[in-house]
Amino acid sequence: MAELLQGIAASDGIAIAKAYRLVQPDLSFDKKTVEDSDKEIKRLQGALKNSSDELQIIRDKAAESLGEEEAQVFDAHLMVLSDPELISSIEDNIRTNKVNTESALKDVTDMFIGMFEAMDDNPYMQERAADIKDVTKRILSHLLGVKLPNPSMINEEVVVVAHDLTPSDTAQLDRRYVKAFVTDIGGRTSHSAIMARSLEIPAIVGTKEITDKVNEGDILAVNGIEGDVIIHPTDSQIADYQTKAKAFADQKSEWEKLKNAQTVTADGKHFELAANIGTPKDLEGVKNNGGEAIGLYRTEFLYMDSPDFPTEEAQYTAYKAVLEGMDGKPVVVRTMDIGGDKELPYLTLPHEMNPFLGYRAIRICLDRDDMFRTQLRALLRASVHGQLRIMFPMIATLQEFRAAKTMLEEEKAKLEKEGTKVASNIQVGIMIEIPAAAVIADKFAKEVDFFSVGTNDLIQYTMAADRMNERVSYLYQPYNPAILRLLKNVIDAAHAEGKWAGMCGEMAGDQTAVPLLVGLGLDEFSMSATSVLKTRSLMKQLDTAKMTELANKAINDCDTADEVVALVESYLKA
Ligand code: PEP
Ligand code: MG
User: Is 292 helix (H, G, I), strand (E, B) or coil?
Assistant: First the structure.
């Protein structure tokens, strides 16, 4: 029987394919007394061999698709699998305690994990603990005869179904095979959703129950534009989705005609339409979609894709590639924003109750200034290869901005003293994503070169509604007059000091928000590359004087977000 589930539309596009469950299996087992230790040791050896064969395949695939460096983590797992000390401890445990292999394996690996984790000032040992945890799961899966899901092993067209996807899970999805993904939890601005948009993989998040309802291999029809998914669609529903897919493809080819066009409103005013990227590889998407600049380069992905802190040289190479790739057009590079939903395997941070309110971004950077200075040096060195703008994330106070800027100036002075050239025209700005900074934007505007509003965070902090939590997604309201008033305050404050104000949160590409933002006088709009052309198309229809009137009405006369949406719709129709 066909069943319809509604979720949050997270990435446009339509797909029909069978389900691949990316769900951790149940690896629980009972501890048993076993007399025949030899038999248990044979089971252990069989599971070790199967795990090793499987890991070897995964390793080779990772090397092929992601590169040798990425594959190294699997080498570490293979080493654990053949570690004689570990294996003999498990065998001894089986013989001495007369227990089943599962139980001996768990006892011994828990002991090693505990020992390594106790050395919490040693990142190498922390990684070893993580490797042993992963390998234990794999061996257990073979002992229990259950399958561990692995996105890199997918080699046919599927819709990935998961409880949640971390940014690193999403990075492993191969667009050739993964036609869409659907999750139980998550919000439109969670980083997996943002990545899905740059990878152009249709996605629906926050369905609450997709993993309960879908079995491996079930056929799913996914509409990422409207946020609905049909389990076991009927023939006529499939035909309907195919028609929608065709209409979407036609719409995309219409937009593509604007690839090399100027971004101008109906009354001829130009707005800068920039794109957000996570890695130099995303430049291709920016070019294909006619992005005029990079309004946000999320550099933390460079850190997340690396087995250890990326060196100054590795960072310099990446920043140079982006600056050169943009041929002198502006590139706003945001300094590392780890924390929240983005983790680094080699930087163990204490578990926090509220990671989005915790040790994150500039807070880590000012505390770990060795790491921050390495990034600043790499950026400064790369600055001669294009038009660099440096932006600090999660700024709450002027002191934070001043401290970060002082470090930047110190590193610049050092480099120049060493005889290294640094560009003289680097703009230095901040993200406005904490309400405190938005409220005193007039003070910040005196000291920064620009603002870029990070609405993904600004909305969650203003409305006190976690951007990742589908249960409170009704409160995640970009069009709430409270948000619009904050935005007006920020944009006016920038303009009063002759500075520019941009936006790099997802709201910048939201088709209902764009008319309001044009009316508020936002200077630069930066979004997922895939939203650039439809926004250019929309802007062509807007008249700035009318949009100013619209924005003023929304701010002064509307009481609720719904009223604002209705008002925008009435203006667009008129
Ligand atoms: C934002 O908060 O709007 C933003 C662009 O940063 P991120 O999504 O990476 O937190
Ligand atoms: Mg943010």
Answer: coil
270-573: CATH topology: TIM Barrel (3.20.20)
Q: Which CATH architecture has domain 3-23+151-253?
A: 3-Layer(bba) Sandwich (3.50)
Nearest ligand to the CA of 300 is 1
**Main-chain phi, psi angles of 404, to 5 degrees:** -65, -40
Distance CA 431, CA 560 (A): 26
Dist. CA 456 → ligand 1 center (Å) = 5
Query: pTM score, two decimals?
Result: 0.83
Label residues 104-129 b or e (16+ Cβ within 10 Å = b). Answer: bbbbbbeebbeebbeeeeebebbbbb
Q: Which ligand is nearest to the CA of 468?
A: 1
Tell me the Ramachandran region of residue 232: left when phi exceeds 0, alpha when psi lies from -120 to 50, beta otherwise.
Answer: left
Integer Cα distance of 139 and 81 in angstroms: 9
Residue whose CA is closest, atom 7 of ligand 1? 456
Q: 37-144 — its CATH code?
A: 1.10.274.10
Nearest CA residue ID for atom 6, ligand 1:
454
pLDDT digits (tens, 9 = 90+) for 324-378: 999 999 999 999 999 888 888 788 777 898 999 999 999 999 999 999 999 999 9
Domain assignments of the chain as residue spans, ordered by start? 3-23+151-253, 37-144, 270-573
> Of ligand 1's atoms, which has the minimum distance to the CA of residue 342?
9
